[in-house]
Amino acid sequence: MVFPETPAQRVFWRITAWRWPIVILCLVLIAGTGAFIPTLVNDTSADGFIDADDPALVYRERVEEIFGLKDPIVTAVIASHEDGVFDPETLELVSWLTDRIERLSNVDPARVTSLATENHVVGTFDGMIVEEFFERDGDHFRAPLDSTERGVEIRAAIEDFPLYQGSLVARDGSATIIISELIDEEASEATYDEIMAIVAEAPIPGGVEVHVAGEGAVAGYLATYIARDAQRLNPIAGLVITTVLALAFFSLRGAVLPNILVLGTVAASLGLMAASEVSFYVITNGLIVNLIGIAVAGSIHIFSQYYEELRQRPDAEKREIVVRAMAGMWRPVTLTTVTTAAGFLALAASAEMPPIRYFGLFGALGIGAAWVYSMTLLPAAMTLWPRKRLPRPFRDTRKETATDLSSRFMIGFGRVVLARPRVILGIAAVITVAGVAGATQIVANDARIDNFQSSEPLYQADQAINRAMDGTYYLDVMVETADREDLHRPENLRRIEALQDFLVTLPHVNGATSVVDYIKQMHRAVNENRIEDYRLPDDPLLIAQLFFLYNASGDPTDFQEEVDYNYQRALVRANVDNGEYLTNRVLVPAVERYLVEEFDEEGITGTVTGRVNVDYHWINGIAGNHAWSVALSFGAVLLMVVAVFRSALGGVIAVIPVAMSVLLVYAVMGYGGVWLGVGTSMFAAIAIGLGVDFAIHTVERIRVLARQQGLTDDVLLKLFPSTGRALLFNFLAVALGFGVLVTSDVPPLIEFGALVAVAVSTAFLAAMTVVPALIKLVRPGFLTQHPQEIDMPETKRAPIAGLGLAMLIGTGLALSAADAPAQTLSGLEVMQRVEARDDGEHVTRAFTLELTDRNGSTRVEETVGFRRDFGDERRSIIFYTEPTNVRGTGFLTFDYPNPGVDDDQWLYLPALRRVRRISASDRGDYFLGTDFTYEEIKQEQKVELSDYTFEAIGTEMVDGVETVVVEGIPVNEDIADELRQSRAVWRIDPDIWMSRLTDYYDINGNHVRTVRLERVERIDGIDTAMQVFVQNHLTGHSTRLTFADVDYEAAVDAQLFSQARLRRGL
Amino acid sequence: MQPSLVIGGVVSAAALLPGATAAQGSWTDRLDWRGIVDIELAIETNDRDLQKWDFVVEPEITADLAPLGDLTVIGRLRLDPADALEPGQRDTFDNVRSPASRRLFVGDAADLELREFFLDRYIDDIFLRLGKQQIVWGEADGLRVLDIVNPFDFREFILPEFEDYRIPLWTVQAEVPIGPTIAQFVWIPDRTYDDVPEADGTFAFTSPRVVPRPPDILVGGGPVIVEAPDRPDNFITDDDYGVRLTAFVGGWDLSANYLYHFQDQSIPFRQALPGGGVRFTPRYERTHTIGGTFTNAFGDFTIRGEAAYSTDRFFIDNDAANVDGVFETGEFGYVLGLDYQYDADLLISGQVFQSIIEDPPLGATRDQVDTNLTLLVEQEFLNDTVTASGLLIQSVNDGDGLFQAAVEYQWRSNVILRAGADIFYGNEDGLNGQFDAADRITLGVEIGF
Questions:
Q1: Residue A496 in 3-state DSSP?
Q2: Chain A: residue nearest B305 by CA?
Q3: Where are the strands (E) in A786-899, listed by range?
Q4: Segment A962-984 mean pLDDT
Q5: Using CA atoms, how far apart are residues A655 and A593, in angstroms rounded to an integer?
Q6: A898 in contact with B at a CB cutoff of 8 Å?
Q7: Which chain B residues have a beta carbon less than 8 Å from that of A873?
Q8: Model confidence over B93-117: pLDDT tens digits?
Q9: Are the C-beta atoms of A621 and A353 separated by less than 8 Å?
């Protein structure tokens, strides 16, 4: 067995063999997926939150089509002085603003509503006249336009026309609005900007404020608002995470490579979103930060493992370290990927709102991409990284002693936890109870305007307008009748009137308008403006005539927002002064109930619609959805963990921290008055997916440790400086990554980020406290049992074990008949077998020397060598072929069987063109600048038996092989001096009789070198060391000797071993 | 006859000999090329003048020309903008080299040279190396007792690496194993001799040991004419021939050497001109050199020795009474060396070199016994990536000497950085002391490709 020995190592060995293609392919993939990102379309509209097929939305769109309604931008003029908006300057401003807004290309001039466009309906001696409020030299409005008198006239007219009160002009006259509907709602952002520009230029008199709000404005501004937020947040998140990485690893590699992973993950997620033509919603912003944190978490564990491996094997090749790290971490990283993805997918599956569904779906895709890049790009890039430096936090020769602050902190923390497990569990119980209580306090609520900070002009405009006016949130009811002109029928109109009356009784509904108001106004007008005639006529013919009369002097399209052309369908609009779900939740069901009760006759129906209804429906799902997504996520994660640990108890232990974290967040929300809204509803599923990672890493680590060393406090304590430290930085990266959302300008994101940060922090703390405490007290069996012992009933286990034992004994007996097991041999007997190993009478081979200094600078020398036995004498010759500077250098050795006789050695130096006789080096001298001694080069994995006294001191697993550990002590001081050794420890693989791992100690007892057999192949029937690595612990220098083209069969000419040949070269 | 043509003929003949195997693989598999770029800067310590700014490219091609053999070609392109070592273009004196071994000068600062070009071929146990090559005899470092097969290029005196200041020659070499010994036969039809800088070069010789000083009595206000060297030019009869036997016996490396050759230093035969003035006509003289070497290692010590006797050596005699201003003598030279290797990284090597001639005449510019000592200390650090060395060459007779200190750092597999100092000192009439003004520090980088 040689490295790579396990299937996982072999996989990553293969992956790292393809490192360049992988890196290039991944970079191409990143660029390829990233290339789609510019095509992402922002969708900040409220409708984006609801499924396009949702009946509420479909119906509303139909209504909008019928009545030509579009989401308007509302410009409010609010005057604080006594005359309100009726003073000449303010009216002039309304006129000026209306005029300018009408000229905007995306504004339909026919659908701009303001005092400057609307008509008054007033009776005259011979009928009624319909006249604009701003009519110059009108019949009704006679005062000059700019005069105070016209203001008085208009005020009187408005007071005389209830339809406009609260909807067009504030009931107290302090405000009026200009409602502008957009031709293209997609371009609302530009239109909002244009209107804001107009307002900025407007001649605003003292005491007057102009605000711009409305659904169109919200949608328009939100896009800019989010883009700005994203531009700011993402670099901060990147910076925060890079800082965490830098602190964790003190290494450029540790800071740079995870960022490339982040790039790949985000590119994959958003690129696929763009490619799938999914829009970028408000909450998608949070996805980026989310992915950054997740992508980095895996890297942190892999890097931690990498540096752990490097610390334990400072002599190993970088690629091997990478492979070992990956082989060690792929499992937990994959598990956490699967569980996190399960959390996201559960969110996607349970969500009704497309933005959340896509958040879950593309989040899971991004997590998948992060995993793929972690398993391919990361090891490939780590292998290619030019250096192999052990950063400060990991630099420590004493393996179990932590030196850096974070490790020391984690150890201290661990001691506290393990000392008081019951206290820990007590605290956990209290938090759980508090969480359950808190959860009952949670309020499901949301309001689109709350996407903005309260300091934003739009938010303030919304508040101001809704305070002054009846409300800019519309709850509409479409009344449909069976036939044309059914709405001339008084009984139908009365129903509408009653509906309006009902609507204004509802909370936050300050007014309701419909065509009925016009009819009443017209009826009054034709009845000499008598206030008592402000009522519906009883005669349908009269009603028809009223409309006819109106059309005679007014514009027939004036009613198009209230009634259709055939007088068959009417729209009743209630003005609601806030957009909160809590309000909608009362209004919509109430109206629905009313309609069921009152519009239950054939021939007339009423249906609730409008923005309020749509908002109600999409937010209404949140609470139910939330419960469902939490349950689903929890279930998915629990199933995963149970499957992973093959233990129900293991699954429960792993999900406890995450359950606690979710409950704690509920407590925070419940007691802190945080709404369960669009943003916050997502936290639980994601927090479950993310939070369970900590517990999985913890349990997995404890399991690995416990299986090796038993389940003791000491073993549990080992968790803290290693995995605990990695989890600490994992937690910091994720928590701070989400924490960055707190600096967002989008309040739901702030809440979402803060909640996830709290959840992750809790999950981390619980994983580091509750899990070890619980394990200490419960001592679950799955941690110490080997996999085959688990899930197998005792009744089955016993016969199998018996059979296995019998086979083992039988095999052992059979083997002992042929050859005593290595474990029973003495040290000398083992080494005699090593010495007796066949290594061929002659051999031809090429070998490469890779010499690496402590700074990672590597020289590579290539040689071709020949060896041949001449009786007991062994001769070898080596020719250097690379690099050019030393090409031609040759080394010839005659090795005599009598250890007392020095070898004869010659060196050919091309610069001298002369063969130089050199004194036989001390056997302990280093061979030509390598870290191998002359003795090792000569012995080729054998040992001169007369040099040492040997003792077998046990067995040890090396690279998955059980080896016999033999200690050798030089027989006397002279030998010790010559070999420069006081002790050598070999781990002899009894299958090949070679040492897989050898440690040498110098005269002073210092551990000076470690020689590792990295690769063995059987060639021409001879076990051959193909790769040997030696690390000098004192100098930091290392040498890797790799053989190739080994041939024991090709004849080796005796004449080759001569000075003449040395001079002539190959 | 051109030596290259001779060798070419031999190569062709070799191709017909048995033992060749057919070529295998494509030509790209059989062709291998590499090279070295060497940039070295030398600054004189006295006046801080730039002494040298060498850009040297040495491409090397090896080709498997089976069945012909293996061909090695090494070229050298050298550009030295400082142009102080060999100012201007070489003219008359360049005829110390045979036309086939001359350099091609490109302007004042650049020259191209085919350094080596040889074909290796085995015929059974017999090894043939045919072509332009270096052959090194002897065990001594930097001292010329038996290392006399190839002439030297003294452009930088003896400061460069040995392989760089030997002039490779068109040679037919055959090595024939005879029992436990190997006999090396050498035929050198390339009549090329030591290349000494012209009078304006930094390392132009001035020492009376090698540069005659015509007695005033002969010059008497007349001209001193120095003729171009008279280079032997007869094919076969003027060629050098040698044989060396080497053996490894009882732990001893032994060799016996014989070379029938022209002494590589020209001998300035003097002729008094009628009416005053002298004419120097440098000539090359044949000699037989016979000698041997030994070396063995004992523990950390290696002893090395070589000795040779040359039958016909000529040295300068400035005595006016000497008709041709030179005297002929036999010369016995030997070197004894002791190397001490400690810990594989430290080498201390000392050598004693003595040259003994017959009783010299009064006007001789050298003593009967000429003694030089050398001491080399070389220490390797950091897994042999850094080598620091100091070499002292001390003339006992003249009291002059040369101290060379150098640090080499193998920065990358194929990049070596160098810094060094070459300090001449002592009697300016001495072979080393004559360059007292040429002390220098050097910086260099060598890049293999």
A1: helix
A2: A917
A3: 842-852, 858-870, 873-882, 890-895
A4: 90
A5: 44
A6: no
A7: none
A8: 467 898 889 888 888 888 899 999 9
A9: yes
Could you report the per-residue pLDDT of B257-304, keeping only the tens digit for each?
999 999 999 999 999 988 888 999 999 999 999 999 999 988 889 999
Sort out which chain B residues have CB atoms less than 8 A from A907's CB and list them: none
For chain A, give the percent of residues with pLDDT over 90: 11
DSSP secondary-structure letter at B232? Answer: -
Mean pLDDT of A440-450: 78
Interface of B with A in 186-245 (CB under 8 A): none
ipTM: 0.90
The answer to whether residue A753 scores a pLDDT higher than 90 is no
Task: List the single range of A540-544, A991-995, B370-374 with lowest mean pLDDT.
Answer: A540-544
The 10s digit of each residue's pLDDT in A981-1040 is: 999 999 999 888 999 999 999 888 889 999 999 999 988 888 999 999 999 988 889 999
User: Do residues A446 and A581 lie in contact, with contact meaning Cβ atoms separated by under 8 Å?
Assistant: yes
Q: Pairing relation of β-strands A72-79 and A175-182?
A: antiparallel
**For the ranges A85-94, A464-473, B7-16, B178-187, which has the lowest average pLDDT?**
B7-16
Distance CA B397, CA B366 (A): 9
Q: Is residue A11 packed enough to be buried (19+ CB in 10 Å), middle (13-18) or exposed (0-12)?
A: middle
Q: Tell me the residues of chain B between 326 and 385 that have a Cβ less than 8 Å away from chain A.
A: 339, 341, 343-345, 380, 382-385
> For the whole model, what pTM was predicted?
0.51
What average pLDDT does this structure show over A661-681? 81
Q: Smallest Cβ distance to B175: which of A904, A913, A1060?
A: A1060
Alpha carbon of A854: minimum distance to chain B alpha carbons (Å) = 10
How does DSSP classify residue B113?
E
Contact B332, B291 (CB under 8 A): no
Q: Are A481 and A603 in contact (CB under 8 A)?
A: yes
Paired tokens of A269: 């997620």
Give the pLDDT band (50/70/90) at residue A316: confident
Element (H, E) at B18: none
A1032 to chain B: closest CA residue: B383
Tokens of B295: 């070396």
Cβ <8 Å between B341 and A921: yes
Q: Distances from the Cα of B205 to the Cαs of B157, B280, B324, in angstroms?
A: 9, 15, 20
Stretch A105-110: mean pLDDT, rounded? Answer: 85
Closest chain A residue to the Cα of B59, Cα to Cα: A884
| Interface mutation vs chain A, best among B252, B381, B383, B446, most A CBs within 10 Å | B383
What CA–CA distance (Å, rounded) separates B134 from B192?
A: 13
Q: Could you give the CA distance from residue B14 to residue B66 in angstroms, rounded to a whole number?
A: 12
Residue in chain A closest to B124 (alpha carbons) equals A1055
Angle B335-B341-B344 from CA coordinates, rounded to 5°: 140
Rounded to the nearest 5°, which phi and psi values hold at A309?
-65, -40
CA distance A116 to A863: 96
Of the candidates A1043, A1064, A1017, which has an alpha carbon nearest to the alpha carbon of residue A863? A1043
Is A925 at the interface with chain B, CB within 8 A? yes
What DSSP string runs through A505-546?
TSTTEEEEE-HHHHHHHHHHHHTTT-GGG-S--S-HHHHHHH
Give me the torsion for CA of A679, A682, A687, A689, rounded to 10°: -140
Bridge partners, B78 (sequence order): B56, B111
Asked if residue A406 lies in contact with residue A729, where contact means CB atoms within 8 angstroms, the answer is yes
Query: What number of CA atoms fall less than 13 Å from residue A907's CA on the CB side?
Result: 13
- Long-range pairs, A790-797, Cβ under 8 A, ≥24: A790/A646, A790/A647, A791/A646
pLDDT band at A567 (very low <50, low <70, confident <90, very high): confident
